[in-house]
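Input record (Table S2, row 280):
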Amino acid sequence: MYKILEKRTLGPQIREYIIEAPEVAQAAKPGQFIVLRLHERGERIPLTIVDADPQTGGVKIVVQEVGKSTREMGDRFHAGGRVLDFAGPLGIPSEIDNYGTVICIGGGLGIAPLYPIARELKKAGNTVIGIIGARNKDLLFYVEAMENVCDELIVMTDDGSAGRKGFTADPLREILSSGRKIDRVWAIGPAIMMKVCAEVTREFNVSTVVSLNSIMIDGTGMCGGCRVEVGNEAKFACVDGPEFDGHKVNFDLLMTRQRFYHEEERCALDRYLKSKGAKQ
Ligand SMILES: Cc1cc2nc3c(=O)[nH]c(=O)nc-3n(C[C@H](O)[C@H](O)[C@H](O)COP(=O)(O)OP(=O)(O)OC[C@H]3O[C@@H](n4cnc5c(N)ncnc54)[C@H](O)[C@@H]3O)c2cc1C
Ligand code: FES
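Output record (flavin-adenine dinucleotide complex):
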């Protein structure tokens, strides 16, 4: 069992947890993830490692409560409580190097996995331009943390309630159109955002890394659930990724596969909300 050391709310249905998992904390690198199970009847939930402290053994994760299992975690799992499994670190770490000038784009919950990558890119000597975006100001988080690791930070909201009104791809296009030399781009967020950002950078021939959140079950390359198509080849996001060359990813297939279990997911959430109502 893994103890929840801290829990804090970052926004509506967005929570940050620090879980005591010393072996994961020792080995974790930016870009990697864990698979968590709340209890013996729980589903496996893949979640990105946001930070890890080998001294305290604490591993930080940020969870957006989008369905049955993540809602259950938010409702019933608090500091001092324990989760059953916390397996990791999984996946190939981000390729951190001194590229020169990099743009790090985080959309919605994607800001959480982006933050440690931006931080390590800055430590490696890069000039880091951050672009973070959300639907509205309440869903924005880690703004100060990103400011601290970026040379410049551009904040976007769909409705203009914080920063500039518009999408993360807008300033990306402006920067690339200005002729400024950009050596690499990281884009992490909803599949549609990564697709649009990769289309923009393709025009300017700038190498672009995206992190694919396909549906994962075992997280070890055994089940095939996370299959994605990259450069016309089948890859397993859990062991070959989750980061891939954004110019080679078949995003339309990814989005179709992400929707595969929508009906089952909706039924599971309905059942959970009914049982929660019955217990209140
Ligand atoms: C490598 C990776 C890293 C991720 N990192 C984070 C993170 O840091 N924070 C965060 O909030 N979410 C993250 N996710 C997504 C998270 O795993 C899902 O939101 C969660 O599993 C949803 O479960 P649910 O029962 O609450 O919702 P459900 O209603 O079951 O699903 C809601 C949506 O979440 C996605 N999803 C559902 N099950 C899975 C699954 N087993 N694997 C992947 N996606 C799934 C699907 O798109 C689905 O439509 C990550 C996913 C992957 C693959
Ligand atoms: S999650 Fe099973 S193969 Fe990737």
